[in-house]
Amino acid sequence: VLELGRSMAQKLKRDESLLVGITAVAFMTVQQAGIAAFKAAPGTIGIDGKHAKKSPEQILRERAKDDSQGLLGFLRTVNKQWTVTFDENDSAAKYRLSESQDLAWGAASDHSRDWRAIDPRRGEGPIPVECRSAACGTCWVGVLGGAAKLADVGAREGKKIKEFGYIDTAEPKPLIRLACQAQAYGAVSVVIPPWNGQFGKLRSLKEKENAPIVQPNEQMESDRAISEPIN
Questions:
Q1: How many structural domains comprise the chain?
Q2: Max Cα–Cα distance, the chain, nearest Å
């Protein structure tokens, strides 16, 4: 990754760290999607000309901006409103949420499109969600900007996000979050992975497959032992 990233940076006369990051993402995409699917992809760039012209510094500045709360915004507390951007290549891909709302809860109030028609996983707004209790892993998102404006990872989110295999870190504000647990205290920009909603189901299936088989006579003995009074 480092060798190829550095080589391309020199060839294109671009920042080395940027090209190394892009190369790492490309290699991980190949690993996850498979080389056959990667070769079969049309190879078109999904970024329009307007966004492609922006420099990395300009993009970072835009991600760091917070919503204006008006002339007397400093008097607002819980009724502050923040913007969540979930596709930086689509100027309409935004929704609003209130101070301390989690990302999934805020997304559920966005009725601007027929989300289920766009993606059957999106039953309530643009972010796929099933359980709202960090049990399924459906709502995982990547945080492009504003990670510091999200509440620290709680014990349950930290535990489950590792179990699902999304990220293994002790950072209080990592770049991968479960949207149903991440409360916002400012404007944020996220990316919604196209394959979310699978890890939780796969893990549940694996747990059922690996569960020990209890024979009827063993179950009866166990039940009898529990029901017998202790002398």
A1: 2
A2: 82
Give 57-65's long-range contacts (Cβ < 8 A, gap of 24+). 59/88, 60/145, 62/145, 63/144, 63/145, 63/146, 63/189, 64/145, 64/146, 65/187
Is residue 85 located within the same domain as residue 174? yes
Same domain for 169 and 85, yes or no, is: yes
Query: What pTM was computed for the model?
Result: 0.69
* Structural domain of 71: 61-206
Residue 136 lies in a domain: yes
Q: Give yes or no: residues 80 and 15 share one domain.
A: no
CA dihedral 158, 192, 166, 21 (to 10 degrees): -120
- Whether residues 109 and 33 fall in one domain: no
| Beta-strand relationship, 140-145 and 188-191 | antiparallel
DSSP SS3 for 48: coil
Domain shared by 138 and 96, yes or no: yes
One digit per residue, the tens of pLDDT, for the chain of length 231 reads: 889 989 998 998 888 877 887 888 788 778 777 888 888 888 777 777 777 788 878 888 888 888 787 766 566 666 789 999 999 888 899 999 999 999 999 999 999 999 999 988 898 999 999 888 998 888 999 999 999 999 999 999 999 988 887 888 899 999 999 999 999 999 999 999 877 545 555 666 666 777 654 444 444 344 444 344 444
Closest CA to 190 of 138, 123, 126, 133: 126
Backbone phi, then psi, for 103, in 5-degree steps?
-60, -40
